[in-house]
Amino acid sequence: MSEKMNESLSALMDGEADELELRRTLNELSENDELRSRWERYHLISAVLKKEPQIDQVRIKTGIWAALDLEEESQSEDILISASKIQASGVRSWSGNIGKLAVAATVAIAVVLGVDTGTDSGLDSGQPAQLVAESSIVESALSTVPESISEEGVNSETAGLLVASSEAVAGNDELQQASVEFMSKHPTLEDMQRANAYQLHHAQSTAINKHPSMVPFVKMASFENK
Amino acid sequence: MISIVRVISLILVSASLPSAAVAEELFEDKTPSQWLWQMNEAFTQKNYDGIFSYYNGTDLSTLRVVHAVVNGVQRERLVHLNGVRREIIRKGDEVSCILQPGDELLTLENSLPSGPFARAFTRNFDDLSGHYRLTFHGVGRVAGRDAIRLAINAPDRNRFGHRLWLDTATGFLLRSEMIDEHGTRLEIFQFSSIQLDVSIDADQFEPSAPHGSIVSHLRLESDTASVKSSGTEPIPWHAGWMPRGFKMSAWDLRQTPNASKSISTLMYSDGLAAFSVFIEDMPTQGAGNVVSRNGATIVVTVSVKGPKKAQLVTVVGEIPTDTAKRIARSVAYDTSR
Prior knowledge:
By secondary structure, chain A is an all-alpha fold. Chain A is built from 11 helices and 1 strand. Chain A has one domain. Chain B has 2 domains: about 190 residues, Clam (outer membrane lipoprotein receptor (LolB), chain A), CATH 2.50.20.10; about 100 residues, Phosphorylase Kinase, domain 1, CATH 3.30.200.100. The termini of chain B are far apart.
């Protein structure tokens, strides 16, 4: 096995491979048995070290390819969404319920305030909350490779990354099969806006109902004492 | 028996680790539950002024919080330090949100019909200790302060766990993490600096936002108003499946101003985790599948059969992806009504 390929493999394992290198290595993996067995050993070692359950090598690879392809498909939407500035259409009082700040100037509120309007990052101009749509397989597959691969290698470098979920990728997902009639393959801008709005609404409702903030911890404490 | 083993192991460990000796004292001093009580006391009763960061898996926000109890009334101010100016000022139950024109939050709110979020059911936390385990998790240090660590573990794969760092001296929450089943951190909340028990001037609670800001006033729901006796009919929808321990905590039916569209909202909680279910008519132009994770929060959109036409169901919550999908798929119209 060439030294270079070995390096690429290590880079892939460490999540340091760029997309080109990732594709090249995956190609090589599919044709080179020795390299593939080495890759599988690396992962086995890594899985053992991390005490992860053993993983399905084929699925990993399929998952990575699927993610790469999906990314290409969704590039146009990605740009569309990243570039879109949603302007305030008439100002109304912010009537959601932000609630129960008190108890907890904490997580729940940080969620509400933390909905990023993109001023921190030039790349992320349009999306208040970043949306990464994924299929279950892509997700589970990517989660088994070093995390930084999915952040730096597989996914695009843009902050407002959008990987559309696809029936092709999640073909065994009964939910999607059942919804084919009504649901299109890729989320539209409206779908993402709706998802964002619901996310904010959930954060606000959660805050006013005090669910994930500090109070439940205390409630829990009281039951332990009984 | 377990506690004896624990004590022995602590003694053994503490021989080599000075910090463990501290932990041992703390273990014998208070139970994890008592630490949580103290945490809440510290949060609501102390004067403090600090800077904390909140990482939701993709974005890092930094906020300043100032809190004091003045004449028995809690005063609090939160200032978003990066990006757009946002402030939240609270005096007792009165809350003012100060935003700038063009803030995405306003736009997002506008995209949904509005209304108060009625609480129909008393939150019931009785089962909570049945599905989360609370334990000590060593010691640590945050914002220059020694901390005791607590772990809140979920026993199944349908919810996330938590790690807490509490100030050893006061119980004040210095850091918290939400973690998935692999121990991957989904959200981190952490103080980078905190002054506790300091005197805070009244002008610290005045907004610093510039002229032209949009101020909206809110009122917090008090704990006692847990059941709202509004005339609204219950929502004829329910989630057919959900993880054990989740109960409906709120519901709401709201319509857009021209009544062209109504959205049913259901909210469920197990006392710690929560998810919302939004049900609306399938848009005429259709909709796309959305499976979107933002840190701990998942958004799943699916289509389900309704009594007359297909419905678009969106599940949002701090729960694992597969759990959210399963819940979304199980949403059904209540035919008994």
